[in-house]
Amino acid sequence: MIPRTFPPAPGWSPDGHRIKNEIDYSRGPEKTWVYGALRIRDGQELTMTATSRNSAFYQQFLQLVEDANPVGDIYVITDNLSSHNSVSTRTWLEDHPRIRHVFIPVGACWLNLQEGWWRTFRKTALAGRSFGDPDHITHATEVATAQLNSRARPWIWGRPAPPTRRLRRRYVYILSRHG
């Protein structure tokens, strides 16, 4: 390998590796939080933006989830954020018996299928963009959610099974002459 004789392009380190930065879409005093719920049976996502990550907005989001799923039980797999388990939220849940919380163990976010969707969502809606105000984040969230929902598929935890492919057998006949 020949050493560089010119400075690297922006976004690249001197040794030729791409510099990766965490996405920062909540700068300044006007933060915007994105709530999301993934329906794993068909891959449809529901998102909502809010100015805070508190119990009131969480309950508002749960109401959207309940409205989007009018029949059957709803299992919300979530982390242990205080707004998810506050007295206010638990009281609200008593009036909504179809919604049941399932808390994932601390430090095991990979157990939640939603995390895979968040990765795809951040790349689609937020990566490499600058937002002038919270309304721009809301708009990007709505557009990205609609795009991802248009090609949604059921979510399955783990790696997909390898494809089963039948190989056609080819018979090769070798004719030879012994002289």
Automatic annotation (TrEMBL):
<protein>
    <submittedName>
        <fullName>IS630 family transposase</fullName>
    </submittedName>
</protein>
<dbReference type="GO" id="GO:0003676">
    <property type="term" value="F:nucleic acid binding"/>
</dbReference>
<dbReference type="Pfam" id="PF13358">
    <property type="entry name" value="DDE_3"/>
</dbReference>
<dbReference type="InterPro" id="IPR036397">
    <property type="entry name" value="RNaseH_sf"/>
</dbReference>
<feature type="domain" description="Tc1-like transposase DDE">
    <location>
        <begin position="8"/>
        <end position="135"/>
    </location>
</feature>
<dbReference type="InterPro" id="IPR038717">
    <property type="entry name" value="Tc1-like_DDE_dom"/>
</dbReference>
